[in-house]
Amino acid sequence: MAPPKIHRIALAGMFVLLFVLVPSLYAEEEPVAVLTELSGTVLINSRGSWGVKPEVNLPLYSGDRVVTRVGSAKVLFSDGAVLDVQKNSNLIIDEREKTRGIAQKVNFIERRVLLFLGKMNFKTGKSNIETRFETTKAVIGIRGTAGILSIGPDGNTYILFTEGGAKYFIGDFIRGVAPEVRAELADQNPIQRAAFLAKAAADQVEKTEQKVRAGVMPPVQLDLARAIEKEVAAMEVKTYAESLLGSPDVNVQNSARKQIAEAEEAVKAAKEEQLRAIENGADPQFRGFSTDEPGFDVPATPGRLKKSDT
Questions:
Q1: Which pLDDT value is given to residue 6?
Q2: Which of 141, 195, 222, 288 pairs with 173 at a CA distance of 20 to 30 A?
Q3: DSSP assignment of the chain, as one string?
Q4: CATH 2.60.120: which residues of the chain?
Q5: Which of 109, 101, 100, 99 is nearest to 129 (CA)?
């Protein structure tokens, strides 16, 4: 069988902004969607925090991340648009009001969904919201359509429309549905691992806080746990940004390089905080991912997952 055809299309004049990974002014934001269904292992980073319990009717905000392992999730937007996120997937949703025009300015809502890994079925809503799907290799403008967006084991972008079609394409894509990515392969994907470890570090801070309150661990240990969480969170942002260096848009690439530099500075600062905590008496052997303190049950280094995580 011949390999699927990779399409390369560039839209002249289309300016693609980097998908913002840094937190917004969450207190001023309203939810843009809600989690209506979930099963299996689903992680949510909402408003910059991994400490959110995934549950039905959980509100989702611009910039939130949805990560699935052996599980699935359904996201319903305010205009009726739906994303069915399949197993072993990792995506970010973003929605905000924007303005176009010079003499006569026009306000509109732009919705962006950035899929880093996995597969999602989609159906757009009834409003005039401008929807765009992005991967590290393609940008696809969507309106009045339904279909499947997926990323294969080779990292290529696949799209199949069951209703309507795209307004535009930028970059490389394959028409169709990507082959399934095995769980053990998805678990080792840099984006997926970065999310797992960031969740584990957040879990570790919560556990350490409980032990400090119970008086079985000194407060300085919490300083170390929080500094470790900052380092892992910065590494997660760096990993996301590094994947965007392959974007078909040079502006995205340049913005990704800036984010990488900022993340590296954040890692450096977090390591300095860790050293200060250790100098103040924190146990230097405490790294947050020991066998008896696994956080989100995923090993800190690539390797075979524990039986309890399968």
A1: 57
A2: 195
A3: -PPPPEEEE--TT--PPPPP-S---GGG----EEEEEEEEEEEEEBTTBS-PPP-TTEEE-TT-EEEEEEEEEEEEETTS-EEEE-SS-EEEEEEEEEEE-SSS-EEEEEEEEEEEESEEEEE--SS--EEEEE-SSEEEEE-S-EEEEEE-TT--EEEEEEES-EEEEEEEEEES-PPPPPHHHHHTSHHHHHHHHHHHHHHHHHHHHHHHHTTSS-HHHHHHHHHHHHHHHHHHHHHHHHHGGG-S-HHHHHHHHHHHHHHHHHHHHHHHHHHHHHHTT--TT--S--TT--TTT--SSSSPPPGGG-
A4: 6-175
A5: 109
Judge whether residue 72 has pLDDT over 90.
yes
pTM summary value: 0.82
> Based on the number of CB atoms within 10 Å of its own CB, is 48 exposed (0-12), middle (13-18) or buried (19 or more)?
middle
Q: What is the pLDDT of residues 87-130, one digit of tens each?
A: 999 999 999 887 765 666 667 788 999 999 999 999 998 877 88
- The CATH number that domain 6-175 falls under is 2.60.120
pLDDT tens by residue, 139-180: 999 888 999 999 998 899 999 999 999 999 999 899 999 999
Distance CA 181, CA 178 (A): 8
In the numeric block, which tokens belong to residue 25?
Answer: 């002014």
Residue that has been written with the tokens 């050293």 in this structure: 275
